[in-house]
Recover the amino acids of this structure.
């Protein structure tokens, strides 16, 4: 474990505060010979950037990625692959008022407790801009996993507040389906309702939470490193490291509590000469190791902490304060979190794949 | 990350299969000067061992711990603290029949996919005996956390199938309350009903799942290492590495999906000169760092995979097989999982405490 | 261990090839509250950059460092501190001729064996430009070590070929003495002779090696993490990771082979209420832990592999080839290696200091 | 880096003080399917144990290894492989007198500075008994390296004080040659003289140092992880972590300081369709990566710190004390260090081999 580094062999280290010069990432351990261009990375980054519609904040970040090292003549070298995105719109005045205020359910108070100080403009390191490095690195991991294993990762918004996407056949949802609308929900009708709900929350100076589902296809059997780095544990770590997450489920998740063993056990059988399970309550992972079935997970995101209505709080000096947030913010983080979830899944799997490959 | 090692500074490495000579653990990085005796460790181990009543398997394991190193004249030396427990009752014949069979929702198939072979007697490394090392190490971490920070960790069974413990005041549940009954549920009436439910499941040749709640008190503000080793992410990793877990919640967990920001945000206020939050949907963690409130989590455990009724499966050669489990097994893992949850919490917190201390 | 990351708590990750956009570094784990400016970093970088005189290559690199993150209002935040330097003078044509040639005693052949490809312009990742990130990070570590412990690190050129600096009193050599001349040798007369020798080597189309001495003062007793991360082992790792190194000595080094125990043992005695050793063959380290005396080491650097005279070699296709190096290169790496040695010592000690501090 | 763990993928964690119940080791990441028996391990352990002749201490340790986990039906499982050796001859009274005394050039003073206390009987963790775990783990690494790559590691005593083994052809020295005599020097005549010298040192109540040479054959090109985990840096770390080491050389070592580039560069040429170097001053490593030639290193060991003549020192209370060592000790550590050097080389290479394999 190491604060700003994720992974053992496909090691990703991110940097950057919302107000600094750049946010970025170094991938150490990236396999050589991968075709990586700024365009591939940019496509993924564009999926998380704000200013895409009525649902997200109207900040125009640009977020043009630059590859700084590790790629030569269009192919990865195997050396550290660094990428960065400039922070273009730093307006400290927007945040000056909140310099000494602890915003409720934000990280202001805890960063100050930890480090004795904090970068108050725009949340500093706790800003969601930090995830740019994750998405950029995840894009590289995706290329490798796709090329080497035909592995696919698709995430989508399954639930916003009480609105739940219609039962979808997980095995067929494509990223095209997901990114077809700005909610990132592959059920277009429900997506429209969710968009309205989010918009209403904004007008109401409030925010809403929800659930993202993620599915991993063509994951070979045998990945995951028991006992501590089981695939489910690594995914839980990865997903819970995304800002605003409060819960993680693998396969059956919390619903397993209500089931009996005879209901929950996944019977093995054969299909085309390959061992499969007839149900998949295990979520593709048994004993912490992938079994060749689809790996499935669900992640709960809390409602955005920044809301435009007055809130009671205290200052860093311990004085009462009524906070009214200004500036730009999303009333629902889920649409923008979808590519981040996909990225963290990709980083986890690339790392576990390499760990398994090392065991020759 | 490293397969069988957990932690960066308080580093715990476990070993052992169910059938081997011993199971054990080495703690590297244990602070010097702690009073550690075999009795302290044994008390914790006794909380997870089977054969304690009608609910758990009737195997008499003994499980006497031996301290092998790292303690001198009753105090830790700061050098590696190794402990082991002998495997006394290895009866390979009990398992011979399952040598070539993939037990449903067990790790037989996946260990074979991963390693090309597996220790078939008693589950080998995927046996819950592996957790002995975790509990032994957790006992040491507890001593340090208690001595240094007055930190307390209490876990209990909150739900077994559809039976839910009555609303308990989290701030007062003690380990004494929890370990007063064999279900490890501090609501004695519900504990009795849960015991009956588990007993019925056994008679029905079936098993049941449930939920464990864990609360951490007196955790100082400032622990947790964003962005990847946030306290919530580390706890999620730790808990999801326990066998049979399928879901993790911090604070509000999945219920946050249904809330608005104005409901979910925890207002700050002052209490005795200290910043507190008036509600605790954050579960004591904000931006991945502890805020001084109680840290709270919930963990879903699936129903035991081993059940005494016939199940369809396949052999390692891909032939259909009807499996009927013999031998000893628990119809509900939760009572024995309680001390394991506490141990993983202790290991996580000891490590994060040391990481914070290093930042002088 | 992790390829391009050094350290456990003060973790430094570097990136960059000689031909890429930038070379840079991220420090993860940097203590908060340190006064760090680009000027402080630049001062150190200027000590390693070429084009400083007759002894080093005439390339004008500029090497202006930019702090990208981790510093706010002049103080470190405790978050990742990233820095980069642009590669300004990339002239691929200078290197085109060597695209398919394995330069003797360079890393061309081995990078190709390892990664299947390599960045042929200017050595790519194996270029000494990689060390810019180390020196920048080392500058930050120095600030912390100086502030917190009054710790000082001074390295100098002790020997170039057969020229050896006059017996210097290690306890008084200052960085000012060292950087007073372009050879970085605190014996000014010998420095002049060394400069002439290096200049002759250049005219002779050849190169020379030598030895750098490094001394660490005010290192508290108690640092170093036996058994594997002893201070001497970590320093050996750190120094041997610098390009062109072939040997490392701590304290008495290889001369210990000729001594008896009664000669080599350092008698303990008291001085001002503090335990000291009367001699220091141990080099300030006993059992892998600092004992409070000066930590001393020596490092052997080979003669620069790039020489302007024709050399027999083979191409990547296995054909014989006569190579005659063009372009800029130093006939002796030692003067520029001095700040790199100091940086690696600083990174090692900052990390060990934090590891010791964690053991509260 | 982690105090008592070595390696990233082939991870070895040792435990044990001289006075505790056992010394031992866990290997995490050991490839599955290796034929490992206690006999194979014991053979290596017997090479380092004392009581083998006139040169080493007359302590009869037994040192019977037990495999505790990770091996099933004679083959490794891929799970943690733990091994232990009991400490049989603990005689605290032998050491009682030294309880409060800092033995010169031992680790008593520094362990106390680091941990605030120490296990005074027999050196505790700083005792050479700690290396038993390394040798046991190294034996496993050897089996894998031999099976998978036909890789061979041979070390021997090259120099004791001023006695130097006759020029040996490195490519032909076998372990059989080395272990044919108790000095572990493949030059039988010089071995005899060395034995006499060591014996004289003992009679003289003194001790002697020397140099061990190690050669690695059939190491594939491409191993080593620049920039920080170069093969030379990892070997330097590994060797310098062995008690009593003061210097490390790779290839030409310190002699490179006296050479010019035209002398030191290793010309490439072809041999049987394979790229070779005509000389090997590089010691088989270029740019931190193996080039397919023999990897060569030399390690300086100081004279044993324990000597039977009176020495001036201080107590832990700072009082002057005249120490006269009692008990058993070797007047020269080199013969017993030979298998330890081989083990550390094996552990380093197994780990680097797995890291390279992961890069698929």
């Amino acid at each position: 474990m190491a604060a700003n580094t994720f992974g053992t062999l496909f090691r990703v280290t991110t940097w950057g505060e919302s107000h600094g010069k750049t946010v970025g990432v170094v991938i150490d351990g990236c396999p050589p010979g991968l075709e990586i261009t700024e365009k591939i990375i940019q496509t993924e980054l564009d999926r998380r950037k704000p200013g895409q519609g009525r649902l997200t904040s109207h900040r125009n970040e640009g977020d043009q990625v630059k590859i700084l090292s590790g790629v030569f003549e269009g192919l990865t070298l195997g050396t550290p692959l660094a990428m960065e995105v400039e922070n273009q719109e730093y307006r400290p005045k927007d945040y000056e008022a909140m310099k000494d205020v602890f915003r409720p359910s934000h990280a202001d108070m805890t960063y100050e407790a930890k480090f004795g100080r904090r970068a108050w403009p725009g949340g500093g390191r706790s800003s969601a801009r930090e995830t740019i490095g994750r998405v950029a690195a995840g894009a590289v991991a995706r290329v490798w996993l796709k090329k080497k294993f035909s592995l696919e990762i698709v995430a989508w918004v399954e639930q916003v507040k009480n609105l739940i996407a219609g039962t979808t056949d997980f095995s067929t949802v494509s990223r095209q389906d997901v990114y077809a609308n700005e909610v990132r929900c592959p059920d277009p009708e429900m997506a429209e309702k969710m968009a309205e709900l989010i918009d209403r929350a904004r007008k109401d100076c409030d925010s809403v939470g929800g659930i993202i589902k993620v599915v991993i296809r063509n994951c070979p059997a045998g990945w995951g490193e028991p006992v501590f780095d089981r695939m489910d544990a690594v995914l839980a770590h990865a997903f819970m490291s995304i800002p605003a997450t409060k819960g993680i489920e693998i396969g059956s998740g919390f619903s397993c509590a209500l089931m009996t063993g005879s209901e929950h056990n996944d019977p093995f059988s054969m299909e085309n000469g390959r061992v499969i399970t007839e149900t998949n309550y295990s979520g593709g992972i048994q004993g912490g190791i992938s079994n060749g079935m689809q790996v499935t997970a669900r992640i709960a995101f809390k409602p955005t902490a920044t809301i435009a209505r007055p809130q009671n709080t205290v200052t860093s000096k311990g004085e009462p304060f009524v906070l009214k947030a200004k500036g730009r913010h999303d009333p629902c983080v889920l649409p923008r979190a979808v590519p981040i979830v996909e990225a963290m899944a990709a980083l986890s799997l690339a790392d576990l794949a390499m760990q398994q490959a090392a065991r020759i």
Summary: The mean pLDDT of chain D is 93. The two ends of chain D are 25 Å apart (CA to CA). Chain D touches chain C through 113 residues (CB under 8 Å). DSSP finds nine helices and 18 strands in chain D.
